[in-house]
Design a protein that fits this description.
Layout (H helix, E strand, L loop, with lengths): L3 H6 L5 H10 L4 H12 L2 H48 L8 E4 L3 E9 L1 H9 L8 E5 L3 E6 H5 L6 E9 L17 E8 L2 E2 L9 E6 L8 E8 L9 E7 L5 E8 L5 E8 L10 E5 L13 H7 L2 E3 L9 E11 L8 E13 L3 E3 L4 E3 L3 E3 L7 E6 L18 H4 L10 H32 L1 E3 L9 E9 L11 E7 L7 E2 L13 E8 L6 E8 L10 E10 L5 E10 L9 E5 L3 H4 L2 H16 L1 H6 L9 H22 L12 E4 L2 E4 H27 L43 H13 L14 H8 L15 H27 L1 H38 L32 H14 L5 H41 L4 H12 L9 H16 L13 H4 L8 E12 L42 H8 L7 E2 L1 H4 L4 E2 L4 E2 L3 E5 L4 H13 L7 E12 L4 E11 L5 E10 L6 H32 L7 H35 L9 H24 L1 H4 L4 H39 L9 H12 L5 H7 L3 H34 L8 H15 L4
Parallel strand pairs: 21-25
Antiparallel strand pairs: 1-2, 2-5, 3-4, 4-8, 5-6, 6-7, 8-20, 9-16, 10-15, 11-14, 11-16, 12-13, 12-15, 17-18, 19-20, 22-25, 22-27, 23-24, 23-26, 26-29, 27-28, 30-31, 32-36, 32-37, 33-36, 34-35, 37-38, 38-39
Length: about 1450
């Protein structure tokens, strides 16, 4: 072999490496042996037969040595501790003398110290530069302990010290021994026999470990500096590989001449230069006085030439590049270059302490000091044991001296930079789009006057018409209304301003209604439309109408929340809406819907960009800017703390709630991040929301001076009084007062508390004379908006800039990790967190507060500014003809009458036909696409080559298989037929195959074996049946057929020798030998249905080998030990073949059933399947189709739920609904099974590459699951195809066929009973006549199947005649006469009568085909064809 390292890490090498090693001529005999082995042997066999036994033996040997060493080391440590305690205890009081001994290997020193003086010194002697310390030294090392560390450990004054030095490693039983060299020191303190745990000391404990300087040899290098080139080669590079992240790197560089100096640059994973580096220093240094007092001149001189890299920069494992550049030296002017020499030594140092609890070496709390040289290592530790952790996460820093140079390699780290630039570009495009939408909002939300307003009308109302958000809620129909009050009404008015003809879904349109005089207290609103829209725009879903008296500011609400459509609700297009009372507005349904709408469109910043609230000063441009500012602020906050938890020391304490894990670090980061993001985002939003718009006096000429002192008036329809609430304040319950208090806390910006605004108008006027007007919501001057814009721009540009700097600092890998994490968290916040937060607030307001949403904007508006300054439509209105408008009003009032019922019914029928036509077309198109996807996915699962592949495998493995009838014949077939077919030994030209990859082929040299084959035997117990009494003298025992109750599952020794006792049997059951039964669960195998019986998935198992000579040896041994005998009932030969040319697997099972009657029955099963579907461009198409299929299934599933909810149990009484439901069940089952199939595939592939497995990979289960998946998919294809018949129901002829079957059902039920009686009579007779001579009639089920085929015209008359020369022909002609002539004639007669009845009775025909005529007429109308 090639050595333990190669055995454990490289059990095999590639062919390229083998050829290179063979052709180089440098390989030794050992290498040649290894090459031959890796060439001839399969990698799995190398591990199983060569490496695994060696590794296991070495592991057992090392474990025994480790346990022995651990016992000896622990006993020695306890003994030395006892000696040290005894010496210290017997020392006189006040004696601080060091005592100790030194041997060749061990050195021990003990001392008793009085730390009381250290306490007094620390408390009183404030002028002392340093506290007292304790120093001890041994040949192995020394330490320096600050005494104030000991004095802070407790009230003990006298402390005993034990300092032990071991020139070897006493803790050799650690698994990490290779990382710790020889030379270990131990330091411990005790007081009164109790050990002192020194930890978390403020000042480090200094430890020194001696090193063998002779092992560090310097290497000589030549630095060539070229002078005549544009880019001189100014660096020499030296790689250093660090395998332990807790190590420190020291570079010792000695110049070849005294006047030379060098710059040293160090960088992880890439070559540094003078602009891109992680650390920089130079040698020789002028002084090392900054390191403190150094007593050894040799060490001081060494440190002048040593570059020590900080430990925090060497945390990652990998390659660190050291770049050396000439800083100072002598240059020659005559030559083209200058050669300078230097000597370089790389030192890798580490400080470890022994963790007694975990029995391992650890570096927690210990770092390598700056005074480390090749002579000794300086360790600075904060404990003598393990220590705790801190939860404060440090902020990620940026090295500004280095980061700018990294922009030169921007192409290597362009992900974050590109993302920031793209986001800024999207922001610019978003601003342009938002500005365009803001302009449209002026028209959309501007309060424009109605077309039929008269200029002479001096009293004005503002109507806010809110369309619902349901599907097809908008309308193009012409809307009219009548607004009535206590004093008057408006008459019939058109809701039309001449510009906006479409009421869009979810829109809020404002109109100005002018009347001659006040209508008084508003009572109701009658609103309707003429149903003149086209298609889906005929109907209208009206949510509510808000009417504002522009003179008094009073607002009235008219809630509708119903359809005005002939095809929806009650079919009416006319609604009467009474004015809403406070009870209506605070009802949960109304309050929840209105609150949710406002909160989502206003509070959710991202949604509000696309759904800006009505009449809001907060424009879309400002909202887009706020979103970008918030996004970039969040980005920079995440950058500041990304993976900052890794910098905290110690273990991280986490609380796990299911999949969510919460740590102190994450809580700290979230709180700090909120404090960073909240102030600027709050200021930006506040400035934008609260800044007052520019003044404008539009419409003031037509408005009266405000007289109102209350803003909202609540009409109570059920009140017997004047309709206003009483002037006195209502007595409120504690719960009401609690709700009001919460409302004042949570809604402090509201303009009004409606419960305190319930007084009569006249009393309010009187009381307001002596009272101050209610304070308005606070606002900011208009110029403050520029401050908001300044903060917003800074909040975008500054975080974007620093985000790019962080990405440059991190490098490509960490930047990409941060980018993925940030994108996922962003979408999670926008899509999940914020909507849930808004809905929770809305639910709280609706259930607890019960406060109606009165306005769309928080700011208090003057009555003069109720119409926005942007609404120039009022003044830009074209000149109108006063008489024409008056005539229009007069005609509208005189012609008004309720909608005609007959016309509505006709329109309703027409619209329902349109809807049904659209639904039919939609269903047809959707289903056609769904079926196409199903056909594609189902047929691509079955390759047309599968049949030929299976036939090829049968021709290779089945010759001689079907002729097996004894155990001896089975062994011969295995040795002479099966093994030559399974193992390819020669190429086509007769040359012997040597390379193991080619040896893995079967006989055709195209397909390859997957893992090894398996023999599995199922047996029965001895004496499983009872011998007849008459035969006892001749026969002593008998063996029954196979059954699950009599099968043998006991463990045996070879040659089926039973174990002597239960202990041996228990031990034997755990072994994996061919004589021990293994359960189906252990083998992960399913039962198998063979020809004569159904066998369990377990059995006695023998695995074959990858090499034919080993397999022959296994079969020969089984044959000699009589593995197959008379108790054997079933032998399964299981193996898997893969053909890479067609990407098909074949799970092969060859079964031989040895009958209890003698002889054998063979059965072969070749399951062809494909596991890897996503290959090449076609794989992407398959993946896309699978996604589309899942979407279709989800769509049909939702539709099924809707239909079940609508029809309830009647859903399951309709034939086509049942077919659809079953189809949906199978479609969902397909998705679930596909997922499990993918999981099983991954497990099988993983087991195939797992060298720890036994070599057999159970692809039989994958093949079985693939087969079941195919069955379910075929059911989906079948049902989806049957669904096409539903589309034919619109054809009159097909409708007649369906009615025929429905009418004939009753007679066919009676006929079926008679037919079944005759049929099974002939089946029983056929079984009795031909069962012993014809295989198709050997049992009753087979006879029934043959007779059914006979009825369809498939029969074997010659076989019947040969079996029964006389009765056979009689049986044949009798069956023809009774079944063919008699019963079939009756069946045709029943069908014919039913069909004639359908033709005569036209009332039984379905009328669905009328929809087809309707569709044809509409299509002709669209094409302009006259009908």
């Amino acid at each position: 072999m090639r050595g333990p390292e190669v055995q454990s890490n490289e059990p095999c090498v590639s062919a390229e490496v083998i050829d290179k090693m063979r052709c180089s001529g440098l390989n030794s005999l050992q290498d040649q042996v290894f090459w031959n082995m890796t060439y001839f042997e399969h990698p799995g066999d190398i591990y199983d037969f060569y490496l695994a036994p060696l590794i296991e033996a070495r592991r057992i040997r090392d474990e025994k040595r480790r346990l022995t060493d651990a016992t000896v080391a622990k006993a020695g440590s306890q003994a030395l501790g006892t000696v040290a305690d005894t010496v210290n205890d017997k020392a006189p009081a006040g004696d601080t003398k060091e005592r100790g001994f030194q041997s060749k290997r061990l050195g021990l020193k003990v001392q008793k110290m009085n730390v009381k003086g250290s306490k007094d010194s620390n408390n009183n002697d404030t002028e002392s530069a340093e506290p007292k310390s304790q120093e001890m030294s041994l040949p192995v090392g020394s330490f320096n302990m600050p005494l104030d560390v000991l004095s802070s450990q407790g009230d003990c004054d006298d402390v005993s010290t034990m300092f032990l030095g071991d020139s070897d490693n006493a803790y050799g039983y650690s698994k990490e021994k290779s990382s710790v060299g020889k030379g270990v020191i131990s330091l411990g303190y005790s007081c009164g026999g109790q050990k002192l745990n020194v930890k978390n000391s403020e000042k480090p404990i200094e430890m020194w470990l001696e090193r063998n300087a002779s092992v560090y040899k310097s290497s000589k290098f030549i630095k060539v500096t070229k002078w005549n080139t544009a880019e001189p080669a100014t660096y020499n590079y030296h790689p250093v590989n660090l395998t332990d992240g807790n190590s420190s790197l020291q570079v010792v560089l000695r110049p070849g001449a005294q006047n030379e100096a060098y710059d040293v640059y160090i960088k992880f994973d890439s070559r540094p230069n003078d602009t891109v580096f992680d650390f920089h220093d130079f040698v020789p240094k002028t002084s090392v006085s900054n390191l403190g007092n150094i007593s050894d001149p040799l060490v001081e001189e060494e440190l002048l030439y040593t570059v020590t890299v900080p430990v925090e920069l060497t945390e990652p494992n990998g390659t660190y590049w050291v770049a050396v550049k000439l800083k100072q030296g002598t240059a020659t002017t005559s030559g083209e270059s200058t050669n300078n020499t230097y000597y370089l030594t790389n030192l890798v140092s580490g400080c470890r302490f022994w963790d007694d609890e975990n029995e391992r070496w650890s570096s927690e709390g210990c770092t390598v000091g700056p005074k480390t040289t090749k002579y000794r290592t300086q360790c600075l530790c904060t404990h003598l044991t393990s220590f705790g952790s801190d939860f404060v996460v440090p902020v990620n820093t940026i090295d500004f001296s280095n980061v700018w140079a990294k922009f030169g390699n921007l192409s290597e780290n362009a992900a974050v930079f590109s993302t920031v630039i793209v986001m800024l570009g999207i922001y610019i495009i978003g601003i342009i789009w938002a500005r365009h939408m803001d302009k449209k909002d002026i028209l959309k939300w501007g309060a424009s006057p109605l077309e039929d307003n008269l200029p002479t009308d001096s009293y004005h109302y503002q109507l806010s018409v809110q369309t619902g958000i349901r599907k097809n809620a908008g309308t193009d129909s012409k809307v009219s209304f009548i607004l009535s009050g206590d004093d008057s009404d408006t008459g019939v008015r058109r809701l039309d301003d001449g510009k906006r003809t479409h009421f869009a879904r979810g829109s809020i349109y404002n109109f100005v209604l002018s009347v001659e005089q006040s209508l008084g207290d508003l009572t109701f609103l009658r609103i309707w439309h003429d149903n003149s829209g086209k298609g889906k725009a005929k109907g209208w879903y009206l949510d509510q109408v808000q009417v504002t008296n522009l003179q008094t500011g009073e607002k009235s609400f008219f809630l509708c929340d119903r359809w005005l459509a002939v095809e929806e609700d009650d079919g009416m297009v006319d609604r009467i809406c009474p004015v809403a009372g406070i009870e209506d507005l605070v009802a949960f349904k109304q309050l929840f819907s209105s609150s949710a709408r406002k909160k989502l469109s206003n509070e959710h910043l991202w949604i509000s960009v696309f759904s800006r609230p009505t009449r809001s000063n907060f424009t879309r441009v400002q909202r887009v800017s706020c979103c970008m500012a918030l996004l970039f602020l969040t980005m920079i906050t995440n950058c500041m703390f990304f993976k900052g938890e890794e910098k905290t020391q110690g273990k991280v304490t986490a609380i796990s709630l299911g999949p969510v894990s919460i740590t102190l670090q994450s809580l700290y980061v979230s709180v700090i991040g909120t404090f960073i993001v909240f102030p600027p985002s709050f200021l930006i939003v506040t400035f934008f929301r609260r800044c007052r718009p520019k003044k404008n006096a539009i419409m003031q000429a037509n408005q009266q001076i405000p007289k109102r002192t209350q803003k909202h008036k609540w009409k109570n329809i059920s009140s017997a009084s004047s309709g206003m609430w009483s002037s006195y304040k209502l007595q409120k319950s504690k719960m009401q007062r609690f709700r009001e208090a919460l409302g004042r806390i949570l809604s402090f910006h509201r303009k009004d508390k409606y419960n305190d605004d319930m007084v009569e108008i006249e009393q309010t006027k009187k009381s307001d004379k002596g009272k101050k007007r209610k304070k308005k919501g606070w606002t900011l001057p208009h110029w403050c908006i520029y401050i908001g814009w300044a903060i917003c721009i800074l909040s975008i540009i500054t975080p974007a800039f620093f985000t790019i700097l962080y990405s440059m600092e991190w490098g490509s890998k960490k930047s990409n990790e941060w980018l993925v994490a940030f994108v996922l968290s962003f979408f999670q916040s926008v899509i999940v967190v914020q909507p849930i937060k808004v809905l929770a607030i809305v639910a709280f307001i609706s259930c607890i507060m019960k406060k109606p949403e009165l306005d769309e904007e928080e700011l208090e508006e003057d009555i003069d500014n109720v119409l926005k300054p942007d609404e120039d439509l009022v003044k830009k209105k074209d000149p109108v003809d006063l008489s024409a408008i008056m005539l229009q009003r007069k005609m509208a009032n005189s012609n008004y009458q309720p909608p005609n019922t007959a016309e509505l019914e006709l329109a309703r029928k027409l619209r329902l036909n349109e809807i049904q036509m659209e639904a039919v077309l939609k269903e047809i198109i959707t289903f056609i696409f769904f079926v196409m996807v199903i056909f594609f996915l189902s047929y691509q699962q079955r390759d047309p080559v599968s049949f030929r592949y299976a036939e090829n495998l049968k021709s290779i493995f089945l010759p001689g298989f079907k002729s097996i009838n004894t155990v001896e014949n089975y062994w011969k077939w295995l040795e002479n037929k099966y093994l030559p077919a399974l193992y390819a030994t020669q190429y086509s030209n007769g040359t012997e195959i040597q390379f193991w990859m080619d040896r893995n082929c079967i006989a055709d040299l195209h397909s390859r074996r997957v893992a090894v084959a398996r023999l599995r035997q199922l047996r029965i117990k001895d004496d499983s049946c009872t011998v007849l009494t008459e035969m006892n003298s001749l026969i002593t025992h008998c063996l029954d057929e196979y059954s699950w109750t009599d099968d043998d599952t006991k463990p045996y020794y070879p040659v089926w020798t039973p174990p002597p006792d239960k202990d041996n049997a228990t031990w034997l059951k755990k072994q994996k030998t061919p004589w021990v039964y293994q359960s189906a669960f252990r083998l992960a195998n399913a039962p198998y249905v063979a020809t004569t019986a159904t066998y369990k998935g377990g059995g006695y198992v023998q695995l074959l080998s990858r090499q034919i000579y080993r397999t022959k040896k296994i079969i020969k041994e089984l044959k000699s030990q009589n593995w197959l005998d008379t108790r054997t009932r079933g032998v399964f030969l299981e193996f898997t073949i893969y053909n890479p040319n067609v990407n098909l697997f074949a799970a092969c099972i060859l079964v031989v059933e040895f009958m209890h009657s003698g002889g054998a029955v063979t059965r072969s099963d070749f399951k062809i399947f494909r596991l890897m579907n996503y290959i090449g461009g076609f794989g992407l198409i398959v993946l896309l189709m699978e996604i589309v299929y899942s979407c279709f299934t989800l769509y049909f599933f939702i539709r099924c739920i809707v239909q079940v909810k609508k029809h309830k149990l009647k859903y399951f009484k309709d034939f086509w609904y049942i077919i659809e439901f079953v189809l949906l069940c199978f479609a969902v089952a397909c998705i679930v099974m596909y997922i499990f199939k993918h999981i099983l595939t991954q497990l099988a592939i993983h087991a195939l590459h797992d060298r720890e497995s036994d070599g057999f990979v159970n692809f039989q289960m994958v093949a079985l699951y693939d087969q079941l998946y195919g069955y379910v998919m075929s059911a989906v294809v079948f049902l989806a195809t049957i669904q096409f018949l539903k589309l034919l129901q619109f054809n009159q002829k097909m409708s007649m066929l369906g009615d025929t079957l429905r009418i004939a059902t009753k007679d066919l039920k009676v006929f079926s009973v008679a037919f079944l009686i005759y049929f099974f009579s002939f089946s029983a007779l056929a079984y009795l006549l031909f069962g012993q001579m014809m295989v198709s009639y050997n049992n009753l089920v087979g006879a029934s199947e043959s007779m059914f085929a006979f009825a369809l015209g498939s029969f074997d008359f010659e076989g019947m005649t040969a079996a029964q020369p006389v009765l056979g022909p009689i049986f044949f002609f009798l069956f023809i006469a009774v079944i063919y002539i008699g019963m079939m004639s009756i069946f045709l007669t029943i069908i014919g009568d039913a069909f004639n009845q359908v033709k005569e009775d036209v009332t039984l025909r379905k009328n669905d085909y009328e929809i087809v005529d309707f569709m044809c007429r509409r299509v002709k109308g669209l094409l302009g064809i006259r009908q």
